[in-house]
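Retro notes (design track)

What went well: tokenization of the new backbones is finally stable.
What didn't: we kept losing track of which sequence belonged to which structure.
Fix going forward: every design gets posted as structure first, then sequence, in one message. First example under the new rule, 142 residues:
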């Protein structure tokens, strides 16, 4: 399965959030938040655990994490804007490029980063902080 290219747009999807039991729609975050979409594999599990420890910095950057997994194992207590989504049949994962896919989607809805390996959190923050819209937000917040 191939990744969706940088600059392109992810297809719409909606899945059950394993923590809240609610249906979460990818489109609900478009234009208002930056989004990391992670199709979970072993590296993705480790990345997600590290990202949760940086929840405050994710919030400061208007960043939502949507982790797509076949597992129905409920996650521990996740911070706001972190969602583990159940993809029982793997159909959404397939549309997104399969296990190991990692995307950063900007507020303009375009893919900024597409890869098979999750970007380390510090590098992700550097990429976001270099975005013109993020610079404007940081100036506005003082």
């Amino acid at each position: 399965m191939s990744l969706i290219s940088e600059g392109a747009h992810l297809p719409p999807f909606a899945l059950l959030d394993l923590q809240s039991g609610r249906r979460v729609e990818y489109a609900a975050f478009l234009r208002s938040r930056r989004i990391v979409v992670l199709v979970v594999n072993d590296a993705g599990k480790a990345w997600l655990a590290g990202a949760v420890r940086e929840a405050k910095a994710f919030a400061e950057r208007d960043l939502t994490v949507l982790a797509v997994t076949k597992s129905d194992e409920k996650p521990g207590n996740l911070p706001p804007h972190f969602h583990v989504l159940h993809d029982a049949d793997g159909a959404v994962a397939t549309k997104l490029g399969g296990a190991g896919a990692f995307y950063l989607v900007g507020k303009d809805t375009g893919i900024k980063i597409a890869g098979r390996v999750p970007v380390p959190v510090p590098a992700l923050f550097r990429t976001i902080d270099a975005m013109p819209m993020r610079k404007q937000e940081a100036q506005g917040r003082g």
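Added context from the reviewer: The helical segments are 42-53, 55-60, 91-95, 121-129, 132-141.
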